[in-house]
Each structure stands twice: as structure tokens, then as C-alpha cells.
Design goal:
The complex is a heterodimer. Chain A is of the alpha+beta class. Among the domains of chain A are: 145 residues; 67 residues. In chain A, 54% of the residues lie in helices and 14% in strands. In chain A, the strands form 7 sheets. In chain A, strands 16, 17, 18, 19 and 20 form a 5-stranded antiparallel sheet that branches. Chain B is mainly α. Chain B has 2 domains: 50 residues, no CATH class; 95 residues, no CATH class. In chain B, helix 6 crosses helix 7. Classes of the chains: A alpha+beta, B mainly alpha. At the A-B interface, helix 2, helix 10, helix 16, helix 18 and helix 20 of A face helix 1, helix 2, helix 3, helix 4 and helix 5 of B.
Amino acid sequence: MLKRLPLACILAALLAPAALGQDDEPDDGFHRPDRLTAAMGDQFLGQLAPDQKTLYFVSSRNTTSEIFVQDVEEGRSRRLFDDGADVTWPRVSPDGRSLLYVSFRDVATGQLCVRDLPDGEGRRCLDASEGALEAEWIDASRIALVSRTSIRGGLRVLEVAVGDALHSCPLLDRDVTSPAVSPDGRWLVYVPIERTSSEVGPAFAAHAGSSLEALRLDRKGPPLPFRLDLPGLTAQPAFSRDGQSLYFVQFYVDSNGDGIADASDHGVLFRVPFPTDRDDAPAVAATAFPRQLTDSGWNCEYPAPAEQRLVVTCSRRQALDVYELPLSGELPSDWDDARLQTGIELSDRRAEQLLLYRRRLALEPGIEGRRLLLVRLVRLHLDFDDVDAADFYAASIAKLPDPATAGLSRPLRILVAHRRAVRDREVGREVASFGEASRRRLLELRPKPGDSPPSLALAALIRSEIADSLGDVGTSRRELDSVEIGPAIPRPILELFYERADALYRRLDDREALWSACQRLAAQASLPPDARMQYALAAARTLVRGLPASEAEAALAREARRAAAGSELAFALGLQRATLALRDADPPPPQLDALLSLYRSQSQPDRRRAVVLEVVERAAQVGADRAVELLAQRYLEDVPKESAERRRAERLYRRALVGRAFRRLGEGKPEAALADFEAVVRRTGGLESALEAIHLRLERGESSEALLAEGTPFGPGIPKTVDDFVRAYLLARRLPHLEGSEHARVAHEARALLRSDWAELRNRRLARALYGSVLAQDFFRTGDLADAERANAQLLVALELSEGNPRYRAMILGALGILQTAVGNDRIALSYLEERRRLPEADDPEDLAVDLTRARALFHVDREAEAALAADRLLERTEKIPALRAFRPLALDRAALYNLAAHHFDRSLELYGDELAALGKGASARNRFVARLGHAASALGAAKPELALGDLADAQGLLGDPRLAAAIAWRPDRAVRAHDRYALILAGLRANAHQRLGQLGEAARALEDRHAAFAHRYDLTRRDDDLRALVLADSRLAENACRRGDVRRASDWIGDAVSRADALAIRTTTPISADRLDALWFAAELSALDGASLPFDVKGRIDGASSDLARTHDPAWRAWEGWFEVYLALGLK
Amino acid sequence: MKRLALLWLALVPTLACLSAPPIVVVDRATVLEEEASGSFDDIERQLLRAGLAARPVPLTPAQLEALGLLPPPLVDHTGRTAADQVDSLLVAHCIGEGSDGLLADTRSSCHGLAWSEETERLVDQVNQARALLWRWMQSQRPGISVDELRRAWQRVHARGVVCGGWRQREDGSWEAKQC
């Protein structure tokens, strides 16, 4: 369910990624939702303007909800206006010139407002006491507004006229939500809601109705309810721009596992025809077969159809973002039944299988076929524990009369009820009544007149399952044994039979019974060959499961003699013998030849496929990679390019060879790995393999320029997208070495190559990552934050697309961290970099860059100790790994600095010593100077003041070198010269060092130098900071004088300190400040303990300060309060 | 003395007097970098730009498996039954056939497959079904205890355990069934 803002519903995070394994390169042809927004926080309620290029949406990136506008091509967004409070529900008028929204600035319950586009000016709001909830444009000058009369009051729909002001009149007095107005203004469709309680307003406690209602706006008449042919609840209707369809969200899968499918589960998008020019449009919608657009693995709501795209809000990884997808949804419209079936076989996600089956159902012309597909849907939903949806489809079967399969609906619905009860029992609900209810269901499953053979068989299977769950194994077995398998039993029922037999007979360890059941299934002529083959293979596996090799061989031989020649069973038994013989990781050539011969001897495609899949699976188990690769290659060569089976063949080949390539890389065999990657590219056009291959060629010494000059590095016949991507990648490789206009030109060319194939590349993580990388390189050149923002957006989308692939995630997390640090967002950068660190390191400069960035980010968020640790690790890597040695000077310098900042003085002293030793004659003057300075500070911190003084003398000498002046570059806006600033630092350190050595006179001179420098600086800048620094300098000199026994000088200095502190207090209008209090405190000490005569009324000042502090009652000043009382008691002058 | 302590606090910024005064225009870390870090612009720039390159990090299969991340399977298993899944988990040593006749959680030995909530549920369901079976067996043979019947069942069942499946020895240790 969407998170609820005060009145609007937005998606809440439900989808958590289950990264159980690495994912493969996407090859299934689905048009998955494409992310449009990428920023911190949530982005939702997106809508495209009529120009199809401008996206409006709500964003919480700045904590409050604000409306943003984004150029879809550019990817950059900006706040449209600042309303001074939360806003939501942006809707663009049909002519694109106005934007309505709900504002909470002046009315806590929401107020309808309108602004002009494109600038967002001209705010005008509806002056009404009712709270505004949702609104939609009727036409360019009228709005339908759902409003709430009061907290407990009902909802109603108002028609609001938009001009210079907004005026409303009642339209519909009904509790409704989600209004949608057709483009021609004739229809208003909404979700009627019913109050849960008459005492509580519907906005707080209500549930959506199970149907929609449609109201004519162009003439009077009652609302027309219509219910869509789907399980679950319907919400958020939205009309297509051409007025022929209605999009909506359906909640019907129990994605959160609470046993109820409701609006807190995943929203799934659908579309039905709704021809608004027809009076019976609601009836058309109600009788139509809704087209499913997204699979239930996605959680998407708030459809906003545009001319060519559908904009939606989806929840992924705890955040909301705006996405787009084709108007026809994830599945291409041109997929036929064969393509859909292959998709089902190759999909490992039930949510996608459901989507594919529904599409098959839509295409299926025959009633029997539809009924059987509905049985499939029932089973899939039961696998999901979606009992309500399963029951819906089971009930739907009864609406399609077919004598051959009559009576299927009733037992299926009983099965659904039984599964619901089993699930309830598992979670501790309804345990006591389970037995009685189950026995009642057994009775209900008794045969009835008119039941067809399939329904009788189904009923027996379900009785077997129920009896099993009651612990009555005997009855369960009898029921199962009684099932008659024959040509009248359709495939879905036979599948259920197999499932039951496999479960029960294997638990009873009745090998014979299961073997017999599989045999019978394999012999069913009514089944297609590939289905018979599956049961034959199951029979063969059953025969030998768990047996010692010799017994297995004997059993296979025995049954092979009995099996009908040429039958699927005979084939399966022979195949099982061949695969079981495969026991070693390195089978001898004759064995491999035998396997290939077995494959080649098969003329039927399903048998060839069976050989490949069974042998590959066995070979993978024993590690016989050669067998895998031989068969995968041969299979790919044989399968026709345009066939549905080609996808399976390519996938197998790609996985086999890419797996081998990475293993070879891990073994230090790059050439062999390169050959594998290139083979994958040539045969399957794999983008990611292409990148790996190119990178290996670069690593072996070929240049980007040479590869670009080759034209098509992988030869002819490679898809254009792959060629263009490779060229863009090679161009991007050159960017770090280019500057100025050449950099801009090459970056432009790389981007242009990607955009020329963007329709295909936009959902490919590599393409997004490369695009983001090019933009990030642009940012490093230009410093233009717009480039950084664009780069960030691309990288965030790439990160989401890389959820299942740690290699890509690592790359993108590192890039995001570097980018965010470069713009100063160190905390955000750290979130990426810490996640990166949870993945293994690589021994290359790219990874070192991530470490360096992480250390720097830690330093910038005041986690100095961790920064020091990270930098130490960085240094260690540069010392151990030859490829990283060139970066040691940088690592050494950073490690020294961060350890110094963390007050690890011994360590920083050691590191600065190493750095000074490493800085040769060619080192820059600046580096030698700052290293010497760092060494001095470290020595002081490590209680080695004499060493520090030696360093400081050297540094002073370097400071006087004119070559250093040229090398010291500082922020140009600083008023103070870098030289003067360093002089200040050196004086301060010298003073501290002399102080440590008890050389108070020398310390005084250093302090006076420092004081003079501060005074000069203040004269230049007149800044509060510098005045404050002077106060401190005065205080230090007073302290020093006091220690030298020069009370008079101490008095003079502290007098100056107090005077300057008073001036600072006036400038900053902070009468009470630590600086001022400290100065007064010291003055009080001098007066009370040393009897000093100060140039101001100490007693009076302390009295006054004490009273001021007492009035504040602030515990922060307690220490001063206490001591002032003591000094007053001791007596002040 | 207190006054020294207080002044020490005031001195701290000057001690690291590479630092700026307490209130600064830019943040302290930036000032420190400007004042005290060495200039290695070229190699730093080279390094950071390398870090932006769109090249997947070359993690080895062994590194990924150590993280519990498995490569996609060569063969997609869309038609597997629950018992087939149990076999796969046994072969991967994620679960084991205990000497008590029940499936045991041995996920610490798991390789090649990932443990999930569904795995736990499957194991529970199988074990419950086995327990029901033994009770039924006892109802058919009232003179024999459930434990004896369980042991007898387990002996027969062991013969059919998939080759390579994880099973418990008498001494409680685990082994893969050899065929």
C-alpha cells in the first residue's frame, strides 16, 4: 500500500529484494517499468504534460512534499514553486497551461489550488471550508474535486470553475475516491467507498468498494456501478488520452502474507476498454477481459496514461519513484502463444508466469482451452497462497460450460478452501476446527451426477490431499490409486495427479507406485510429446533414485528391454544411463563423444532438448565443464535463430561460457576468458560479455584508439546496439586523459552513440552506468552541478537495475560515492561507500579510488579516527599491490593528515617522517612545506616540542622561499594571503612548543607575533571570526604574562580581551558568550588571586555577568556561574 | 588549574593550529585539507576518474560464492515438485536426513543453493507430514511404538535418499550418500 500522506494515498515500501543469486543479462524481452526519477526521498504521483517531455511529480527530497518538474530527456528536475508548506496531487490541465494541486499552507485539511504553467506562478485557491482530497481536470477550465465537509463528515464531489478565481458547486454527494474524468468530459469514474463506522469519517476508516461507478457528466442520471472481471479490489481509475481505455490498479495478491489481499499489498496495473463515446461503456468494461500490464512482483499505483506512455508510481527498495512503461504493459503486444509458452518455461518468477498465463488466456479462443488455463491460474495462485484470487479463477471456470470437463469448478474451490485452512493452521489460526472442516470437505467432494471424468479424477486427487493432511494415509493412498488416467483427462489435471503422486509415494518410499504412475503419464497419447517426455524422464529418475550405481544400471537396463521401442520412456531410460555414466569432472573423450552422438542421433527437437538439459545438469553437478560447453555450443548451432527455443539455447550457452570465462579469469587465464566472452558476443550478442571482452583486450595492451579504428571489434553480424555501446565505451575510456574542447567533443560523441539506441539500451544497466560515467567525467571537467545531477540520476537507475549482480553494484556504488563526495555530499557518499565495502575488494586503481574517497568522506563528517584507519588501509594496499604503488605518495600524505586530525600523533609523526624521506629533490615546494608543518604539529602532539621547534624552523625557512609563494594556491576569495595564514600557524605552533619547554619568554614573543598577525588580519577583513581570534590571542598572552609573573602585562592583555569581547558581543548581539565569559573569568582570577589591578570594574562586570547567567537558567553556563560566585566571595577589585 | 584547563580548551584549535578558529566560513575538514594536505592533483585526478569508469568490478566466482551469491543456474527448474526441491537441498547439504527420520537444518554446510524462508517452510511441512505418517503407521500397528516404526521407516527411506544427499551417521556426524 502507498504511504498515506494526510489525505492522499501513496505507495509504501513493501518490496524487499531477495538477492539470493546473481542475475543473468536480461534476455526475456519484457518491457519492465523504466525509472524516470532518481533522487533522495520519495518521488510519486508523476504525470506527463501534453508535450510528452515534461514530467510533474511530488518529491520529499527536501523533507516537505513539493512539486517538481523534470525534463524527461535531460533527467534534471527542479522545484516548480515554493508554496511554503506541504503540497500534493499535481495534475496538469488538458491544454498544459495550468496545474492543479492540493496545498496545506492555509488549510490543514487541504485546499485546492491552481497555478499557471510553465512557471508555476499565479497561485489561486478555492476558498472553501471543506478539505480538498483529490482532484482531476474535467476540461481546461473545470475541475472535479473530492472534498470532505468535516472530520466526521462525508465526502462529496464538487465542480470547480477555474478562472482568475476558483468557484465551486456540488456535483455528486457521495463518498468516493480516485475520481477520473474522460478526455471528452462525458464520464466521471470513481471508486465508491463505504464507511466502516457511521461515527468515523470515510477518510479515516473506510474500505474501497469491490466495483467502480461511472457517472455521466453531460446529462443527468444515476451512477452506473460496474465490476471488473478480476479478483480483489479495484482502485485509482485513469482514462487513456484517446478516451478508449480505462487504466486502474488491482489489489489481489497477498504480497505481505497477512492472509488478506487488500490495498496494503502490491498494486498491479490493468487496462480495460471503456469507449467513452458509447452509452454502454461501463458494461463494455465489465464484460471485457482486463489486460494485465505489470506483474505482481512490482508494486505500482497511480497510473497516469499519456499519449504514448504510461507513467506510474512504484515502490522499490523502501522508496517511491516515478516510472514509465508502454501503454500495453510489460509484455510486447506481438507475442503469440508459442512465445508466451516459452516465456513461461524460461521464467523462474511466479509473478511473471501469472502475467504470461493471463495473456495466454486472453488469446485462447476455445472454451476448453480457457477452462484449462484457468485451472493453471488457480494452481499458480495457490502456490502464492493467494487463496482469494485462486477462488475467483476457480469460480470463473463454472461460467464457461464445457461437457467434456464439466464439474471442475466445485472441487477446485474446495481445494482452495482446504489450502486456506492449511495455511491458517500453519500460522496457528482455526486449529481446532481444522479436522471437522476437512472431513466436511471430503463429503462435499463425493461424486455428483453430471461430473465429467476430469472432475471425478480431480475430486479424487483433492480427497487424497485432504485425507493426507488429516493423517489418514490409508485413505489418501486409496484415493490416489483410484484415479483413472486416460485420454479424457486434460493436461492440467494430469499435472496435479503427478504432483500428488510424487508427494505421497515418495513419502511412503513406494518407488514402484511412483514409477508406475510416471509410466502411465508418459504413455498418454493425449499429451504432447514434450509433456510425455517430462514424465518419462521423471520415471527414469524415480527408477534409480538413491540406488548404488550398479543397481541403477541394472534397473535401467531391465526396464529398457521392456519399454516400447521408440517411446519416450525408452528414450528417457537410455538418456538416464548416459547421464549416470558421467561421474568425473574430466570425462574421457570417448564418453564425451558418446554424449554428442546421443544428441546427434535425435531428430525430434524435444528429445534433443532433453539430452542437452539432462546432460548439462548432470555435468554441472560433477563439474564436467567440457561436457556442458560442448553440448551448449552444439545446441545453439542447431536451434534456428528465429525460433522460440533459441532463447533457451542462447541463455544456456551464455551462462555456460560466461561462467567458464569468469572461472578462467579467477585462475589467471585472461586469454582463454577473452575467447569465451568473444564467443558469447558473436553467438548471442551479449552486451555485458562484449564489455568484458573489450576490457580484456585493453588490459593486454591494445589501445582504445586502435579498437575504435577496427570499426567492429567482434566482426560483422553483431547487433547495432552492441557495436554502438562498445564504441561509446571506448570513447569514454579516453575521457580521463582529455581536457577542454576535445573532452567535450568526445563526451558528446559517446553520449550520442548511446542515445541513438536508447529505446533498447535504456533498461540495460551497463548503458545507464556508462552514460552516468560520461556525465560524471563531464562534471569533473566543468564543475557544473547540472552535470553531476544528471550523472547521479543515471547511476541511480543503473544501481536499481543491478540489484542481482554484485559486480555491477560494486562498480556503481563506488561511482556514486565518488560523485557525491565531489559535490560535498559526504554523508550521502558514505552510505554508498559503506555498502560498497561490504562487497569484496579488487586490486586495481578503480577500487583504490573508492577507498580514498571513503577515507575522505569519513574525514569530512568528523569521523577522524575511522578516516585514519581507512587511510592506513589505503596505504597498506599501495605498498603491497604492485599495480597500486604509483599511488603511494598520495596515500601516505592522506594517512598522515587523517591520523593527525584524529590526534594519533605518534602515528602521524611516523607517517610524516616517511613522507619527508620519500619526497625527493623533484618534489614540489608546497609538498615539502606542508609535510614539514604536519611533522611539526605531530611532534608537538606527541610531546616532542624540541623536535617540533626544529621542524618549525625549517618550515619558516621554506616559507621565505619565493618558489613556495607561487606554489601555495588558496581559495581566491580569501582576503588573507596564504603566506600570512601559514605564518600565523607557525607562530601558534612555536608558541605551544616553547610553552611546553617552559620557555615562556620565547613563547611570549611567538604569541605576540601571532597577535600582531591576527590584528592585521582583522583590520583587513573586519570579520567576527577574526575578532574572536583576537580575543583568544589576548587571552593567551595574558595567560603567558601571568605565568611569567608579569601581572601588569597580564592585566593589560586581559583588559584588551574583555574590551574586544564586549565589541564582539555587540556586533553579534550575543550578550552571553563563552568567549566573553572566559575573558571575564580570567580577569576575575587575576583580580582575586593575584591582586591585579585591571583597567575596568571587575567586580561590577562579574556581578553583572552573574546576574545575566542566573536569569537564563541555562545549565550550559553553570560552570561560569559557580566560579563567579566563588570569586565574588573571595573579593574582587 | 581550572584557568589553565579552560585556556587549554581555547588553545586546542591553535594546537592543531592547522585548524581554523572555532567558527569558520568553510568546514574544518576543508580548511585542514587546504592548509595541510599535499598537492597530488594529477594522480588524485587520475585515480578518481578511474573510479568513475563504467567497468564492472572483477569479482571472482569464489569471492561471490563466499558472499553467498550464486551464479544463475544453467538449467531453469520450473517444473520441480516439493520433493525435488528437498532432493536439491539435500545434495547442496543445506538440509540433511537426520537419524531421527526428520529433515534437519544444516545450512552452515550449505553450498550452491541459498537458504530462504521458503526452505524453512518446506522443511516444516515435510517433517509434519512424516510425523503424521508415523502416527498413522502406529494406528495400523498398535502394538509397536511410534519410535520403533519411525526407525523402521527411516531405514527403508535411507535407501531412497538421493545420491550425494546429506545424511546423519550413527555418531551424529554428517556425510554425503555415496552411490
